[in-house]
Design a protein that fits this description.
By secondary structure, the protein is mostly helical. The protein has one domain. The chain has 4 helices and no strands. Helix 1 runs antiparallel to helix 2. The radius of gyration is 13 Å and the shape is globular.
């Protein structure tokens, strides 16, 4: 899959949640997707839903880190 196709795949995932986001929240996450793609990092469904949770204030970055640490058994 090409770089552009991988980036578009992330955008397509984000678009599934567009109706839950304000225009600014959508643009903010789109900006993150674009910048990560420049580093060859492509957001999957979980990444995007976590970005949405962060944007909505449903979770803090520290809480999200703890969730990952528990899952990966590094905490």
């Amino acid at each position: 899959m090409t770089w552009e196709a991988k980036k578009q795949q992330s955008i397509d995932i984000l678009d599934k949640y567009k109706d839950r986001l304000s225009s600014q929240e959508y643009q903010d996450i789109l900006w993150v997707i674009g910048n990560q793609a420049l580093e060859d990092i492509f957001a999957d469904e979980e990444d995007i839903t976590n970005m949405i949770r962060l944007q909505k204030g449903e979770v803090t970055s520290k809480e999200l880190i703890v969730e990952y640490q528990k899952r990966w058994k590094v905490a």
